[in-house]
Amino acid sequence: MQSPRYFLNHFMPFTGYPYTGAPTACNLCGSTESVTVAETDRRLKTLKSIACAECGLIRTDPMPTPAELADYYAHAYRADYQLAFAGGPPRVHLKRSAREAAFRAELLAPKLVPGARLLDFGSGSGEFLAAARARGCKAIGVEPGRDYSAYARATHGVEVLDDAADDQFAPGTFDVITTHHVMEHLRDPADVMERLARWLKPDGVLYAAVPNMAATGKPPHERFHFAHVHGFVRDTFDLTARRAGLVPDTNYWREDTTVVYRKTDAPPVPIRAPGLAQRLAEELKPMPAAAYLASGAWIWPMVRRNAKAVRETFSAR
């Protein structure tokens, strides 16, 4: 169980998170110029988010250091966003993961043939690995969350690595690579996308999905939180893929930032999106904190989010 200080650090409004961090250049284009998008997160805690003035990629500023992020995911992430203090995935998570795995398997069915080699980067509790293996694929996962990877091995009997360095796999190893809601958690998403592209066979496909920061129906305050150190919209996600030598595969269904990419021999394109940063700053600008509190708009999202966290924490496995 986390200490009272933990809850003060992570849940008390109008205070910062317990990290120091450091300013960084944009991981996608390398620019240091930026536009401020938000100063607070969905808990009204101090958390500055900026959009790169050159390409529009959103990032936390200052960016948590590698050590700070590693410590956060090892000791705080599940309690922070699921109020989950016991090891292993809750039943509600498993049901949701099974539904998503079934959808992903159906979408990628043309590639999930017997003998196909598949990597699930961020494999969680292993439901998609199990679905791919059931179709005859040679599937392997990468999952840094030790409780989840242990569950995947014990329950589904799948192969899961705790990490994967650049040289973990030879270039052109996999027919299919998938990564579902992982890139937003990484300090270096563009670099990781390039790594995944190297591991992909020339005729392989990469399924990648991240939350869409431009999605409607959610107040701006609700779109920012500490665990997501990068934020994407359709344009910046495609630029991230393009830098890695990937383009959307039009043979597959797409919804904004849920995409199936393929390799391309086309020459590189400039990693630029003129005007996108300013547009995002205008579209995502939260109302002042005092006005937001007075409006009461925060009440239902808070109740819904906390009810979901309690269900996922205390539901029987």
Helix share bin:
25-40%
Tally of helical runs: 11
Q: Output the CATH class name.
A: Alpha Beta
Strand content: 15-25%
Walk me through what this model shows.
With 317 residues, this protein is of the alpha/beta class. The protein contains eleven helices and eleven strands. The strands form two sheets. A seven-stranded mixed beta sheet has the order 6-5-4-7-8-11-10, sandwiched between helices. A four-stranded antiparallel beta sheet has the order 1-2-3-9. Helix 4 crosses helix 5 (127-134). The mean pLDDT is 88.
Short description:
This protein has helices at residues 4-11, 66-75, 77-82, 91-107, 127-134, 146-156, 189-199, 234-243, 276-283, 289-295, 299-314; strands spanning 34-40, 46-52, 58-60, 117-121, 138-142, 159-161, 174-180, 200-209, 230-231, 246-248, 258-263. By secondary structure, the protein is α/β, with parallel strands linked by helices. Helix 4 crosses helix 5 (127-134).
List keywords for this structure.
11 strands; seven-stranded mixed beta sheet; four-stranded antiparallel beta sheet; 35% helix; Rossmann fold; 11 helices; 317 residues; alpha/beta
SSE blueprint and pairings:
Blueprint: H1 4-11, E1 34-40, E2 46-52, E3 58-60, H2 66-75, H3 77-82, H4 91-107, E4 117-121, H5 127-134, E5 138-142, H6 146-156, E6 159-161, E7 174-180, H7 189-199, E8 200-209, E9 230-231, H8 234-243, E10 246-248, E11 258-263, H9 276-283, H10 289-295, H11 299-314
Parallel strand pairs: 4-5, 4-7, 5-6, 7-8
Antiparallel strand pairs: 1-2, 2-3, 3-9, 8-11, 10-11
